[in-house]
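Deliverable D5.2: sample structural annotation.
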Amino acid sequence: MLTNIAKCLLGCYLTITFQYASASPAKSNSIKELLQLIDIQSTIQIELNALQPSIDRNAERLLIKQLNKEKLSTVDEHLAVVQIGQLFKNTTEQFFQHPTTMREIENIYAKNLSEEEIQFYIQFLKTPNGSNIHKKLSVLNPQILQYLNIMHNQAWKDPKQLEQFQNQINKIIQPLRVE
């Protein structure tokens, strides 16, 4: 019985090893086709739009720090936050439209997916279900990121959480302190 299980495991191992060893590297044309099918530019735009509240919070923090205030109080200051947030977003959009960025995204796909996996994904996206699922994921992923960002920010506002975090940091730093 044990030898049958060992043979089965060895067979599975060899099959998996052979599949990975025989997987061909992703072709540039296939990656470009995939990125076109997933409409990477629109996907990035959707995610940036979903991140706008976070971008605006960062703009507000920046302005508060630059003005050396505890909080913003005038209409002009709040308008400046909107302008700074838009500047952050526009700068990020320009970064994603840069050819170097797209080449790096292509490289990431090439490093992580084989030609066979890309072809399978392309075929899947060409089906109505594949296209529909991709569109839904393009909406879901930014919502999940936004939720995680909100939860992260709420955790940092919780005094108990902050105290616990500070205690953990103190434990790490304590041995480094020279007396």
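Annotation notes: The chain is about 85% helix and 0% strand. The longest helix spans residues 128-157.
The annotation will be released with the project's public dataset once the embargo ends.
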